[in-house]
Design brief:
alpha+beta, five-stranded antiparallel sheet, 5 strands, 42% strand
Length: 66
Amino acid sequence: MRIRYDEKMDALYIRLDDSKVVESEEVNPGIVLDFNAKKQVVGIEVLKLKQRVPKGDLQQLKILVA
């Protein structure tokens, strides 16, 4: 599993495995799931993270991801 936070785009991406993404679906506003050919979730993207996470938690996340 890999976690990446793009501060400029304010997006968090969690990659669960390395299989090829063949489809993406926005399941809630700003929450996108990536699926492989077997319809398994292989990635999760959270957009506008600063609006969703308390500032202190976001700082901890930046340290964890860096």
